[in-house]
Amino acid sequence: MITFEGPINILLVDDHPDNLLALEAVLGDLNYNLVKCMSGEEALRHLLKDDFAVIVLDVQMPGMDGFETAKLIKARERTKEIPIIFITATSKETEHFHTGYAVGAIDYMTKPFVPQILRTKIEGFVNMYISNKKLQLQTDLLHQKTKELEKMNKELLRTAYQLTKTEAQARVIRETSIDTMITFDEEGRMMTVNPALERMFGYTEADVLDKPITLLVPGLSGIDILANANGSESNREGGRLMEVMPVRSDGTTFFAELQIGVAVVDSERIFACTISDVTEQKLFERKLMEAKEAAEIAARAKTDFLAMVSHEIRTPMNGVIGMSALLLETDMNEEQKEYVEIIGKSGEALLLVINDILDYSKIESGKMEIEEVPFELSDCIGETFDLFTVKTKKQDLEMGYTIDPLLDMPIVSDVTKLRQVLINLVGNAVKFTSEGSIRVNAKLLNDYGSHLDIQLRVEDTGVGIPEDKLPLLFQPFSQLDSSMSRKYGGTGLGLAICKNLIELMGGTISVETERKQGAAFVFTIRAKRLLSSEPIVDTARFGPSPDQPVSFSDFLSSMEEAAACDDDLSGGSSALSRIPPEGRGRILVAEDNEVNQKLALLMLEKLGLDADIAENGRQALALLAVNRYDLVLMDMQMPVLDGIEATRLLFETFPNENCPPIVAMTANVLPEDKEKCLAAGMSDFLSKPIRLDGLRSLINRFIALQGSNNKQPAP
What we know:
alpha/beta, five-stranded parallel beta sheet, 22 strands
């Protein structure tokens, strides 16, 4: 039963407070909410906010009288149905009655009124108000229920449509799918199949219905699936994907993927599976795997071939370069000296070619790594300039560099690679500039707090770069012009290597195109701020080395020119060529090449050291068993027993404290070769061709370590 529980508001409007009190006295005990107003305007304001059951309205009021107020009430949609009872004390009753009813009053009373009559009329109107409210609530409820029924009907129609649509789609999918779809029970008896079965297996629907699923997929059953899945909800909902080998009607098998799920219908488990023929995919994967293996084999073969070529070239070049260097220190006339210098330079040029090819191959294969160390940018640029001082003085070239004051601080990056890029770019600038200047500018691009973006600019006043040749820049094995290759030499790998190194350091490189004279290369690197606890390294320690991907022909040329520019320096050079012998050290050289044996003996003799030769690793072990040596120079590739295995056997045979330090002296220069040597227990790595100064420096470090841990060289 519908009830009305809202408040019952009665609006009392009279300009005399005494009249309002009289009305309140008559109606106050009827549990109505009496709202009193002293003007028509005030009454209208209340009607805007609240709902009223009846209005008791005085006719004669100052300002807006009762008739005007009633007109406005009846003109408003929300309030026009509220009953109005006029109360008046005027003698013109008939005229007032007519006017009151005309403006919308439903009743009329004159003062003084009879209280009981007023109460009865008010109660009658209130009962009508309550009945109307109940009727409105009932109407609203009926309307709401009607809407709900309409919505439910629409949902039912939509569901029926979706069900019909889904069934139609499922039927189309089942009938047109290239995959076989099967349902079967717990015993494995097939219940339904789709037309793809005949195309895939060669069976008709009648051939397989009520037959075991193992007819098509040997070993498959609902019970096994439940046992393997442990009835887990995830497997029941998402299904399981299995690789199977189904059997066709002719007995042949094929690769397939089977996706299977289970549903419960009337307490009975029903299995549904889809069988997809993946034979072509498997064949493609097999071909892809074979291609990948072939590519890996080719890459290994390429690496092995380059390593072999490097070894085979470096081994004789060790003799050529080493012997020519020793020969230069003997008494010769100027013509002989010139010929020997040509031999040395030719050897260095050939070594440069193989270095560039090896280094580019290492970058191409992704084996180049970043080594971050703290350093001063000014030191790195200054030391690069030092390498070209002799040559630029000879060519009368001006060199200079500027560094942003914001970069007057230590930074952390790969100083070796940065230095190599600068050597290459500055070397090119020196090579292609006959007059004028070469400048390097460094500035801070971005400061991100923890790291910095730094821009370096290398510019010259040389021959410049033709605009049509710009696309060839940074391409491997490319020269801007074949005549340049003949005139200036080079492999065409320098800028390509620079580009790769800069990208490894998080930067980019480009060349300025709009220049009237010369060339300008601009590159960026990303560096870190130095933490206060990190030591700053001497960048000179990170100079050119055989396993770094940058050309050093200009550096070598500068060194040779420096040696030849002043004959007065030869006496000092000779004085430094020997280690002051407080007692002759004894060195074991394990080397199978006769030329390199001879070269090693001559160099060690020149350094004031005694040396024995072992032609292979086995002879080296035999000599170490009976003699005491201060240092072992061990080749990696030797017949009978190679250097790596000989080192391992040595540490297995002798106590660690009795083993002399072992240094690899080898033509194998790839990073993995160095890692193999250190992993075997060697203390250092010296790549061929061997330079006398490098050998002297290495021996000084190790000979000075007698009586301490010989496995680690002094810094």
